[in-house]
Write a structure and sequence with these properties.
This protein is mainly α. It has a domain of about 60 residues. It is about 75% helix and about 0% strand. Helix 1 runs antiparallel to helix 2. It is elongated, with a radius of gyration of 25 Å.
């Protein structure tokens, strides 16, 4: 039986510096919005509403990022299964077999 080498994609790992930059960027942005809401010359109800809106937006962004990542990973798994099936069919096919 002929075995084919599959072209499995290399899993990319983020560097520690990239991870730290993303975390710091998120922290700075969230702190800047929090300070801006706190310093806003408006009633406490308006500031509280804006704070809740920012928290809701933040959690929604995390959820969306997770859903997109999960869908991408699911697509890669399906692609690998389809590729393995095709390789099996090609390995078992004998083009010189008489009909």
């Amino acid at each position: 039986m002929l075995t084919c080498m599959s072209d499995t994609p290399v899993k990319h790992q983020n560097t520690a510096a990239y991870y730290m930059q993303a975390v710091l960027s998120f922290g700075i942005a969230l702190a800047a919005v929090a300070i801006g809401i706190f310093q806003l010359e408006a009633s406490a109800w308006v500031r509280a509403f804006l704070a809740v809106a920012v928290l809701y937006l933040t959690t929604s962004a995390f959820t969306l990022a997770k859903v997109v990542r999960d869908r991408q990973e699911e697509g890669q798994i399906v692609s690998r299964v389809d590729q393995a099936r095709l390789e099996k069919l090609l390995a078992e096919h004998d083009p010189f077999q008489k009909l």
